[in-house]
Q: What sequence folds into this?
C-alpha cells in the first residue's frame, strides 16, 4: 500500500515537468489529431480502481501515457477547429504555479494573492478593451458562464427597474422580460437563458444579413412598442464568419427603450485592442455588459472567461452571497466571489496576469492583427484553387470555405468529404458547420504561434484533399 506523502513531491513534479515538456516539444511534428480510436482512448484509462493507493510517480507515468495517447494537439499552430487558442509559455507556467499554490479564489480572507491579482487584471482588461472605468469583472470558466453572469445582471437590472427583486422573489409572478437577440446568437446565449429560467422561447429573433450581422433596421422594428423590462443580445464576432453586429446602432436604438444591451464577444471583443480593427466594435463601450473568453484568443489555458458589467451594482446584486462565516473585507476591495456564479474556484487571475505581461499592449495588438492577417491569407491562398469558394468577408480571424464539384447539387457532400479527409490527414484540424443552409469548412486562427508557413502547409493539405475528393467523384 502507498500513502500520499510530501516526500513524493520532488520526484512526481519532476516527472510531470519532464513529460509535459516532451509533449509540448512534440507538438509541431505531432499529428494534430491523435491516431487512436475513441475505444482505444477509453481503454487507456479504463482500469479497475485499485483498493490500495499506488505510488504517485507510477500514477503520473500512467496518466501521461494514457493522456498523450489521445490528447488533441489543440495548442498546435495548425489547429484551426472551433475557436480554440493555444497557450502562451508564461501562461502555462503561471497555471502550473496556480495548481501548486492551490488558492481558493473566493475571498481576500481565503487568498490575498489570488484576490489581488484579479483586481489588477480586471483593471487591465477594462482599459485594454476600452470599456467604461468602474465596470465590474467576474472571472468565470468560459464565455458560456460569462454570458450567464452578464444576463443574470441584466435580469436583475431590468426587473429592479420594474420594482421586482428577482433574487428574493424569483420569476413566479414577475413582470415579463422580453429578450431580443440576433437570429444567429451563439447557442450559449440560449443556454444562459435556460439556466436563468427565462427559457429559449422568450427570444425574439432579429434577422441577420449575408454575413450573419444583425440588421439594425429589423431591431428597430422589433423594439417598436417595447415598454417593459427588455434585454437585447448582440454579438461581436459571429462564430462562423467573425462578423460584427452594428453595435453602435443597436445600443442607440435599445437605450431609447431603456433596454439592457449585452454583447457576446467570446473572441471578437479582442478586436478592440487593435487600431486596425477597433472600427468593428464601434459603440461597444456604451453597451451594458460584455462576455468574452481568455482561453480563446488571449491564449491562456482552459478554463478562463470574463463577465464584464458596466453597472457594478447590478452585477453585484445578481451574484453576491452572504453567510455569517464568510469573512469579507470591510474595505473597498472587490471580493472575487461577489461577481461570479461559483463559490469556491480556481485562481484564474495568475495565468491572465502572466499572459498579459508577457505580451504587453503591443504584443497583444500584434497577436490579434496577425491572427486576422493569417485568416485572410488562408482565404486568399485557398481561393486560388478553382472550385474553392470563400463564403465570408474575412474581417477577423474566421474564414468560411465551401468546395464545389462539377455537379452543384453535390457540393454539400463534397464539402463534408473534404473536411473529413483533411481531418484524417492530420496536418491540421478544422471543423465543419452549416452556414445559411450550406455545408462549410470553418478555419479559425486563434493561436499565438501560428505562422505563414503553417497556413501554407494547411492550405496545401486542404487543396490536396479537395482534388482527391473531387477526382473520386468523377
Ligand atoms: C460567440 C461565442 N459565444 C460564446 C461561446 C462559448 O464560449 P465557451 O466555449 O468559452 O463557453 C463561443 C464559443 O466558441 C462563441 O464563439
A:
Amino acid at each position: 500500500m502507498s500513502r500520499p506523502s510530501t516526500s513524493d513531491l520532488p520526484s512526481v513534479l519532476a516527472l510531470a515537468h519532464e513529460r509535459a515538456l516532451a509533449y509540448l516539444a512534440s507538438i509541431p511534428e505531432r499529428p494534430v489529431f491523435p491516431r487512436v480510436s475513441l475505444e482505444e482512448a477509453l481503454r487507456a484509462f479504463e482500469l479497475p480502481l485499485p483498493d490500495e493507493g499506488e505510488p504517485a510517480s507510477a500514477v503520473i507515468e500512467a496518466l501521461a501515457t494514457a493522456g498523450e495517447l489521445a490528447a488533441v494537439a489543440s495548442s498546435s499552430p495548425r489547429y484551426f477547429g472551433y475557436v480554440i487558442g493555444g497557450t502562451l509559455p508564461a501562461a502555462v507556467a503561471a497555471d502550473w504555479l496556480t495548481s501548486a499554490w492551490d488558492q481558493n479564489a473566493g475571498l481576500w480572507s481565503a487568498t490575498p494573492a489570488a484576490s489581488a491579482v484579479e483586481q489588477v487584471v480586471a483593471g487591465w482588461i477594462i482599459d485594454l478593451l476600452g470599456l467604461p472605468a468602474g465596470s465590474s469583472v467576474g472571472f468565470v470558466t468560459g464565455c458560456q458562464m460569462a454570458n450567464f453572469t452578464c444576463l443574470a445582471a441584466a435580469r436583475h437590472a431590468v426587473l429592479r427597474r420594474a420594482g421586482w427583486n428577482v433574487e428574493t422573489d424569483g420569476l413566479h409572478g414577475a413582470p415579463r422580460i422580453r429578450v431580443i437577440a440576433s437570429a444567429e446568437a451563439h447557442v450559449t446565449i440560449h443556454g444562459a437563458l435556460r439556466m436563468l429560467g427565462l427559457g429559449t422561447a422568450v427570444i425574439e429573433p432579429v434577422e441577420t444579413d449575408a454575413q450573419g450581422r444583425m440588421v439594425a433596421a429589423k431591431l428597430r422594428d422589433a423594439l417598436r412598442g417595447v415598454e417593459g423590462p427588455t434585454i437585447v443580445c448582440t454579438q461581436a464576432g459571429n462564430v462562423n464568419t467573425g462578423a460584427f453586429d452594428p453595435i453602435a446602432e443597436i445600443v442607440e436604438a435599445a437605450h431609447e427603450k431603456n433596454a439592457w444591451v449585452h454583447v457576446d464577444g467570446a473572441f471578437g471583443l479582442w478586436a478592440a485592442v487593435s487600431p486596425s480593427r477597433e472600427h468593428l466594435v464601434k459603440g461597444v463601450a456604451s453597451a451594458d455588459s460584455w462576455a468574452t473568453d481568455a482561453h480563446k484568443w488571449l491564449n491562456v489555458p482552459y478554463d478562463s472567461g470574463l463577465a464584464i458589467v458596466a453597472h457594478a451594482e447590478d452585477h453585484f446584486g445578481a451574484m453576491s452571497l452572504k453567510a455569517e462565516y464568510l469573512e469579507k473585507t470591510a474595505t473597498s476591495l472587490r471580493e472575487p466571489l461577489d461577481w461570479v456564479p461559483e463559490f469556491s474556484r480556481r485562481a484564474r487571475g495568475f495565468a491572465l496576469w502572466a499572459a498579459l505581461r508577457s505580451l504587453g499592449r503591443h504584443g497583444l495588438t500584434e497577436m490579434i492583427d496577425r491572427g486576422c492577417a493569417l485568416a485572410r491569407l488562408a482565404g486568399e491562398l485557398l481561393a486560388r484553387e478553382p472550385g474553392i469558394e470563400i463564403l465570408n468577408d474575412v474581417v477577423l480571424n474566421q474564414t468560411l470555405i465551401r468546395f464545389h464539384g462539377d455537379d452543384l447539387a453535390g457540393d454539400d457532400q463534397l464539402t463534408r468529404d473534404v473536411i473529413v479527409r483533411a481531418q484524417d490527414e492530420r496536418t491540421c484540424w478544422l471543423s465543419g458547420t452549416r452556414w445559411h443552409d450550406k455545408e462549410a469548412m470553418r478555419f479559425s486562427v486563434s493561436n499565438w504561434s501560428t505562422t505563414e508557413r503553417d497556413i501554407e502547409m494547411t492550405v496545401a493539405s486542404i487543396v490536396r484533399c479537395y482534388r482527391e475528393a473531387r477526382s473520386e467523384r468523377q
